[in-house]
Amino acid sequence: MADLAAAGFRAVICNRPDGEGPDQPVFEEIRQAAQAAGIEAAFLPVASGKVTDDQAGAFAGLIDRLPRPVLAYCRSGTRSATLWSLAEAARGRPLPEIIAAAKAAGYDMTGVARRIANGGRTPVDGTSLHHDVVIVGGGAAGIAAASSLKARKPDLDIAIIDPADIHYYQPGWTMVGGGVFDARTTARTMASLIPPGVTWIKAAVAAFEPDARAVILDGCRVITWRALVVAPGLKLDWTAIPGLAETLGRNGVTSNYRYDLAPYTWELVQGMKSGRAIFTQPPMPIKCAGAPQKAMYLSADHWRRQAVLSGIDINFCTAGAVLFGVKDYVPALMSYVERYGIHLRFQERLTRIDGPARTAWFTRTDAAGQTSTVERGFDMIHVVPPQCAPDFVKVSPLADADGWVDVDPSSLRHRQYDGVYGLGDVCNAPNAKTAAAARKQAPVVAHNLLRDLGLISGGDAVYDGYGSCPLTVERGRIVLAEFGYGGKLLPSFPNWLIDGRRPSHLAWLLKERMLPWMYWKAMLRGREWLAKPKPALPASAQ
Q: What homologous superfamily does CATH list for 2-117?
């Protein structure tokens, strides 16, 4: 108790019943020692494994009443962590935050996830809904997977879980920021895109219970499944850069990574006649690794066409050490870097921004690993936020050590749990996180899932890591980067038609006219043009 007082604690809660172990001081001894040390002590005994709702309520009351900071303890700390978790849930704290905080302290609260999702109370309704296939996420990957499944088995019972009303064609936002597309053409209602015969559960996921083959929704509804497809995309962490969230959309601060901000990018580009323009790229992985450069090249091309480029200082500040991860495309990109007079700032990560002061701070890492801070003023800055898996995925049993859904990169099955599959931006396969990747992954997941359920025959389908990044280097020309695992080039067209290593007008027409149509009319409807899954090679041929 004296050590606790010296550490700054002002109160202690004992959650361990007297007499639980022979070497255990009883609470009266604890109370006296606490009083001598100037600490207030409270007794809320809880039997191991039997935390009740009333006890959780009493714990919350003690936390409110006692002077802080408070230390709660039992034998291992699990009962105290459980009481804290349930009390926090009753206050309205989101389940992923509670589980993440407990996990950081060394406690796994997934076993009481349903109670946490139910506001810290034991659910009284044990009923649940059941579907043969449950897909978490109604974005490009989730809807494409549902459509590919329906194309193979029209009578399959499928549910998509997603709370959003609007579905966005996010690859189009670069073109919005470049004045090519109208933002409204990139948005459609979710209801219009859910495949016929698929149930749409308009709710948010709170937790996964893969051992019970269950998904827990906010409000503690339970959905059980024979097969689970996890495709909720990733999280854009705007708050990870101090000052950014407060200034987005004004003070010259913009981002094509948000529907409402891409038009502001074009507004800034049109209005800029001189000054400094900064384009940032955070550490990988991010959604569409080429998008930060696309915004820069289209902006620079507009300034060139308006004959103001010479008066604009363009800086590309990237946390990476190279311009693009696949070296075959770098020469073409470097020719445009030189044409536009762009200053490349490698291994610089945006760490703070002051919009009204038009100032940004970067952390630079040198070859020896030493860091320093660089301050830069700006007239316009295009920011790409740090990105991570959604919170409810990061804290789940499905996640790897970095928070991504842990899948086999070839089959896209979960490495640990049978009947679970991942695709799209949320999985940890080492491919580029692009819509083109999801287009190729969806048929692979559909085939392997149905094969595992015994509904179709044949061997595994394999995903080769295909991703595509149409790099808009100028209005009317694109470097069409197509590659797979290990940077292997995987062109869709012969070189005489489109050589992806060189800027092409035909590739621009593909991006501007064909890809949106393919997205809405083919990918999201189960038409697997240029995306038929490949069978696994027999062992003798590998």
A: Protein tyrosine phosphatase superfamily (3.90.190.10)
